[in-house]
Design brief:
Radius of gyration: 22 Å
Structural class: alpha+beta
Oligomer: single chain
Distance between the termini: 39 Å
Low-confidence stretches: none
Helix content: 25-40%
Mean pLDDT: 92
Number of helices: 11
Number of strands: 21
Strand content: 25-35%
Largest sheet: 8 strands, mixed
Bound molecules: flavin-adenine dinucleotide
Shape: globular
Amino acid sequence: MNTAPAMEARACVVGGGPAGIMLSFLLARAGHSVIVLEKHEDFLRDFRGDTVHPSTMTVLDELGLLGAFLERPHSEIVEISGHVGEDTITIGDFRHVPAKTKFLGIMPQWDFLNFLADNARAYSGFHLLMRTEGKDLVREQGRVAGVLAQGPDGPLEIRADVVVACDGRSSTLREASALGPRDLGAPMDVLWMRLSKHAGDQNAALGFIGAGSVLVLIDRNDYWQCGYVIAKGSAGDVRRRGLDAFHSELARTAPVIADRVGEITSWDDVKLLSVAVNRLDRWYLTGLLFIGDAAHAMSPIGGVGINLAIQDAVATANILAPALARPGPVDDGVLASVQRRRMYPTVMTQGLQVLIQRNIVANVLRSTAPPKHAPAILRWLSSIEVLRRIPAYIVGIGFRPEHVGLQR
Ligand SMILES: Cc1cc2nc3c(=O)[nH]c(=O)nc-3n(C[C@H](O)[C@H](O)[C@H](O)COP(=O)(O)OP(=O)(O)OC[C@H]3O[C@@H](n4cnc5c(N)ncnc54)[C@H](O)[C@@H]3O)c2cc1C
């Protein structure tokens, strides 16, 4: 018999990432009680997604928070450029996206999450339990009726009319539910590291294509967050070749940072992201819903993971908040309509990512000599100003932008 102390709320959200915090904020704002579980003691984890896209800033604007958000330290990127052999190409121009903020905001994810959580605390229904890990589902009469968790003071049972799993791409609740994601494949992994930014460096997101590698530099004001894209499973080979060889590889791929690759003094400075692209065919069981990376892990191409997670949260709140206004458990039809609403943008975005992975990234990673020119399609895209708006729209706004409903 389970003897863990019990808590109760209308909704239990597992995972305090972008999806979980935004959803809980919106449900609490609509007047519902929500318990959010986050297994870490803070949001301070490096090398997470840091891009806040115009679609997310539109949501913040609709919540009356855009001004306060933009007052926090951040950088703004108006275009995405790439250097390939002799070519410099611009593949995304955000100056024309249909949003107030015509740029990508870059803010450390922990700052963004703290900002959301601080604002959510204004609502009495919002309860964030840090250092509390969702371990298993409570099942009762054929439905999920809560979560068994481990908190700082021991085991805990949270009972709720709906449980929303926002626990990321290695979702514990997904495992407990026995729902398995469909794997769409990824030819690459990414090594993440920091390098200093110098006076005179360009303020932009930059991509460099070398022999068998791609290096992406993301402007973080006083440093570059660097993503070195390598063939799937080859991180061990990179390490075996040694740090000196790694420095040379980086410098060859992006000569602009050749003068500072020595700042990487140990493999502890380099974090491996094993890239996965997958999604659930079914996002719910009775009483339980999956959103964000727990429902669909995204490729890093386009840096859209956070923003899809936020869009999922907004759509979920728009559908769940009115359903929670009725007493009793949330029925399957409500959860199915969240999946119906968000499957289309997920499939479209992942479809494009997989297309780019197969036709551009995989070819680059197989190459043994640095390319002389950018692929023809990218040169074409770069040469016509109007066309550069298309990738910016897809990345910045996305396929089905969501708006904060009238749940208040
Ligand atoms: C290295 C890296 C770089 C990335 N770069 C970008 C980028 O530039 N732009 C972008 O948009 N996306 C990026 N992404 C993807 C982006 O971070 C994710 O798509 C996004 O954070 C998904 O949000 P989420 O809320 O669904 O899940 P997550 O952000 O994964 O959040 C899940 C949360 O749940 C918590 N948790 C997990 N299990 C449990 C449990 N059992 N109980 C309680 N809590 C739990 C975790 O601690 C975490 O806080 C990147 C990802 C990585 C790994």
